[in-house]
Specification:
Length: about 140
């Protein structure tokens, strides 16, 4: 599980959905939470939180500027390791000094020419980000 500590900069609720925007370093990460929220169920602006998302929910892209994407969370990273077993590739990433990991198919890693030292973008849908109160 990828974990990024940050601070809530905004929280909006509409019915059974809430948008939580978390400042992590120099970027804002968004999380869309679905459920019933009581009065104290959502973090408030200024709260320390941890954003969590699965390695298998972390896609990779070489050039996000060249594509119109619905994915809101775009993290500029550098590849630190690639372990490919022929079916799956585990790609370790450095996001501004914070470790992340992506689990993609070997074919996708080959198509990207994923290699140590390469600049790449990690992409995570807002609906795949969980929010935990407190820092990791």
């Amino acid at each position: 599980m990828n974990r990024l500590s940050g601070t809530v900069v905004r929280c909006e609720k509409n019915g059974h959905a809430a948008l939580v925007v978390i400042r992590v370093g120099a970027i804002d990460l968004s999380a869309v939470l679905i459920g019933s929220f009581d009065a104290g169920g959502l973090p408030q602006a200024g709260a320390a939180v941890t954003a969590l998302f699965k390695e298998s929910e972390t896609a990779l892209c070489l050039d996000v500027a060249a594509h119109a994407l619905s994915i809101r969370n775009r993290l500029a990273c550098r590849i630190t390791a690639v372990e490919d077993d022929g079916i799956l590739a585990r790609v370790d990433l450095d996001f501004d000094g914070r470790p992340l990991r992506s689990l993609i198919t070997s074919d996708a890693a080959h198509d990207l020419r994923a290699a140590v030292g390469m600049a790449i973008n990690a992409l995570v849908k807002s609906t795949e980000v969980l929010v935990e109160t407190g820092s990791a």
